[in-house]
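Customer ticket, subject: "Can you confirm the structure for Probable alpha-L-glutamate ligase?"

Message body: Hello, I'm evaluating your service for our small team and ran a test protein. I'd like someone to confirm that this is what the system normally returns, since I don't have a reference to compare against.
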Amino acid sequence: MKIAILSRDGGLYSTRRLRDAARQRGHEVRVVDYLRCYMDITSHRPRVLYQGEDLVGMDAVIPRIGASQTFYGTAVVRQFEMMGVFPCNESQAISRSRDKLRCLQLLSRAGIGLPVTGFSNSAKDIGGLIDLVGGAPLVVKLLEGTQGVGVVLAENRKAAEAVIEAFRGLNANILVQEYIKEAGGADLRCFVVGGRVVASMKRQGAEGEFRSNLHRGGRAEKVKLTPEERSTAVRSAKEMGLNVAGVDLLRSNHGPVVMEVNSSPGLEGIEGATNVDVAGKIIEYLEKAVPTGNAKDKSKG
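Agent reply: Thanks for trying us out. I re-ran your input and got the following:
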């Protein structure tokens, strides 16, 4: 099987692990900087070109699209889809999960547990928005934020009003959510591949830090999920249409609640904490999912 990994940097841990796992299983793989791709968009023969080379004959692509490059990255994935190449995650599913508001709306419609969340446009509605989520303390999140950037814990009402006013003054789109105090600054990262959880870890925030992101000094350890947590993670990935996803949960007094569904979850933290070959699980999934004979069909043109 010929696999393209769409990644800006071939030296990143996740990219290297996926490349090595594919090669170890006998596949031909190359890393492609999706921002250097350009596309011939025609009805009879859509093409993706990379540094002047026509990328033909690919059987599957593994998108590792950065959050700030979602628009162009998903356009490249979509072009491969138009060429009949199997995507590990479809372009529409990536876009759906990247839009945090849309993601939460879809999960809510499916009856999946969420923290109480509010969204508004006008600064005149700040008081009602704070009351909606149960008052302070509460969490304010930038819709465009990643890795804990743009996430603020407002410990009292005045602080909440000031933070929301500041963000809205910059025309930033924000979500306001209830603060799940009982989580104790920890969350669960559930790694879903092909409709099942293949690895899970608990991430604990650094001392005095309510955000559990490993990039912010948090620590990780292997964790055993409850059946409800496992089901919530699988349902969340399915609702987004993602075959590979990192689903972040909090343990609340009313059951697991979903904080985020990530379409390009990192492998370093989860593999280090669990000793599970997650990269290998992703390649195994592709081996089962790519239609039989796909490689032979692609080689003809």
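A couple of notes from the result: The two ends are 15 Å apart (CA to CA). The chain has a mean pLDDT of 91. Feel free to reply with more questions.
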